[in-house]
Design goal:
about 290 residues, 7-stranded parallel sheet, two-stranded parallel ribbon, 10 helices
Length: about 290
């Protein structure tokens, strides 16, 4: 997909962070943008601000990606208004602030919430949008947001997040292969925001945690600066606008792996693959 003008783009997690940055850049290129998010207040503000800045058609629609019926209602609303979807960004995600806890000490409700948003949000998006996109016969791309943490290698400080993003990478690879069998119009891509920790408010996602999942313990970190110190990552941060620009360039180029180049990241991936091929023990990430 070389041009975005007049394309219809749906972005979950669109009220802030990478989702909002994608919406801003797509709107600036003339796309018709649907921002979908659970946070109605931020959603309304983002849609109004982007529309005012770009003159593009920008719609904010509330969605709870943990509920299949809510995502289905989103798809129905988008097709009713626009009659098509060309870009679907399954981007909504939550951070659990889970560092300093062992897998066996983490509350089960945290596991359910993390997977319901990060994994089932992607699954529900695919179920509700992919059949319509394929049936339309129009060019389209489904982009799932993973993470190098879990999606490529797993940090031991964040077991829930890492496991959920590993699932997203696997789902995306399978989706790519299955879409090939349906023809060459709709394809899949997987986005790894980076190359450094992305400066978003994902660690504040507890503000949108439904009561069904119970109260969350005080997180081990509140900001991205806290996270990099806790996990031993480099202090450099990547801004959401950089991620959005990189993602759109990759989509234009027809790439599946939307993975920024990083000497350190490539080394970690190679170390993991070397250990795997040698049938050896995992490389320590502490």
């Amino acid at each position: 997909m070389r041009e975005f003008r007049n394309r219809v783009a749906v972005i979950t997690g669109g009220a802030s962070g990478v989702g909002r940055a994608l919406g801003e850049q797509l709107a600036a290129e003339g796309a018709r943008v649907v921002l979908a998010d659970i946070d109605q207040g931020r959603l309304d503000a983002a849609a109004a601000e982007i529309a005012a800045d770009t003159g593009a058609e920008v719609v904010g629609l509330q969605v709870d990606v943990t509920k299949a019926e809510s995502v289905e209602a989103l798809a129905e609303a988008v097709w009713s208004r626009f009659g098509a979807v060309h870009l679907l960004f399954n981007n909504a995600g939550v951070g659990l602030g889970e560092a300093q806890k062992t897998i066996w000490d983490l509350p089960l409700n945290d596991w359910h919430w993390g997977f319901d948003v990060n994994v089932f949000g992607v699954v529900y998006g695919i179920r509700s949008f992919a059949p319509r996109m394929v049936a339309s016969g129009e060019e389209g791309v489904i982009i799932n947001t993973s993470s190098s943490n879990g999606g490529l290698r797993s940090l031991p400080n964040t077991p829930i997040y890492a496991a959920s993003k590993a699932a997203v990478t696997s789902i995306s690879e399978v989706l790519y292969q299955q879409l090939l069998r349906e023809g060459d119009k709709v394809r899949a891509a997987v986005l790894f925001p980076g190359p450094h920790v992305v400066n978003t408010s994902i660690l504040a996602s507890k503000r949108n945690r439904p009561a069904d999942y119970g109260a969350q313990d005080k997180p081990a970190y509140e900001t991205m600066e806290d996270l990099v110190r806790t996990t031993g990552l480099k202090m450099a941060l990547t801004e959401p606008e950089e991620v959005a620009s990189f993602a759109l360039a990759g989509i234009r180029a027809g790439k599946f792996w939307l993975l920024p180049e990083s000497a350190e990241g490539d080394q970690k991936i190679n170390e993991r693959m070397d250990a795997l091929l040698a049938r050896n023990n995992p490389v320590s990430a502490w």
